[in-house]
Every structure is written in structure tokens, then in C-alpha cells.
Amino acid sequence: MDDLNLDLSLQDSKVPEYNRDLNIYYDSYYYFSKSEITQLNGRNIATNNCIQRKFQKTKSNNNNNNSKMQKKKYIVKTDFKCAKNSRNQWYFKPNNDYVKIVSALDDQCLFFKNNTLQTGKCHSNSIYEDFITKNKTLCSRADENYCLDGYKTLAAALESMEEKNSKCPFRFIRFGYPCCSDSAEIILTDEMGSWGYENGGLCGILYDTLDLLDTIE
Q1: For residue 95, what pLDDT band results from cuts at 50, 70 and 90?
Q2: φ, ψ for residue 36 (rounded to 5)?
Q3: Alpha-carbon gap, residue 86 to 31, rounded angstroms
Q4: Pairwise CA distance, residues 200 & 184, whole Å
Q5: What are the chain's domains?
Q6: What is the mean pLDDT of the segment spanning 22-39?
Q7: Cα–Cα dist 203/79, whole Å
């Protein structure tokens, strides 16, 4: 009888859907990581770069008064070092014979259009968002010549909701420091990260602030 109850409980439990070609589960977060060699002071340095979302401020003309206004958006970059946060993490959604790649940051879909990787609101019938599997490599349905060659899908460690929603590296929170506001400036950087100073105490610099320090074309 106990064995029968065990079998019934296993049947009732939901088994995560698995994609054998990609070696991924559809309910898990992953990094797209690629090892690349760069030169620094004449030495070859191996770095792991990830497909990730980067924060960017842009200026656009306001039609009402022709003044320039600040706009915020996230762009997709492939030449930045991997970091353990939701901007670097993606999950997969099946779409008939294809898969969609969705950002863990805000559930926007990755798509390939005009020779560029971008993100936007997910649609059920957009070929630009669909990816196919060729020789265990993801390629764009819209242009099968564009593939994520050399990228490995690495499973991300499970995170609490507090950690996932943190606006600065969670190690600051773990040690009792708050995240800074977006107006805070970096006063020092050490092995723990970049620090600011607000309200009479140290705080962790936001991801958005760190992104703006990077050179983004």
C-alpha cells in the first residue's frame, strides 16, 4: 500500500519539461557564457563573457517643446564579463517547434533583427523571437545563419526573491548594507564591490550606476 501511495504521489507531481537537444529545463535560469581571449599589457587573458542586459540612458527630442529628454532602456551586450545577477540570466519557453529566450530581469524576449540581438515584449507569433536548434546550437529562426556559436548554457544557482529583486549586488545586503540611491557616487572599490556613502553610512552602488560607467556604443 505504501508503494502504491508513493507511485500516485509521483504521478501527481509536476516534472519540469526537459529539452534534450539543449540540455536545459524550461523552468530554470541559465547564463549564456562564452570564453574569449583578450590582450592586456601584451598578455593573453581568458575571460568569460555573457549575453546580458545593460542599462543605458539615451536622449530623444520632445515633440512638444523640442527639448531633449532622458530615456531609460536596457540593451543587449555580448562583450561584457559575466556577473551573477538577473541581467545575465535567461530562461526558455517552448513555442511549438521553436524556443523563446526570455530575460530573468523583466520577462522580455530576446530577438534577432537587423543583425542585432535585442529584447522586447514577447509575442506568440514573431519569427524574430523564435530560435531553432541546429547541431545543439541555438540559431535565429529569422536568419538561420545567425547562431549563438561558442556559447554554453550554464545553470544559475537558485536565489531568494529578495536576492533576485536586489538593485545592487546582494552581498552588500547580506552584510547589512543598503543599496545606494541612483544619485550616489562611487567613493571606493574593493574586492566586495563599489561603495557609496549616503545618510551617514556606506551603501552598495546600483547596477544601473555601474552600467553607465561602462563604454556602451
Answers
A1: very high
A2: -135, 155
A3: 9
A4: 13
A5: 16-155 (2.80.10), 167-213 (3.90.1220)
A6: 89
A7: 28
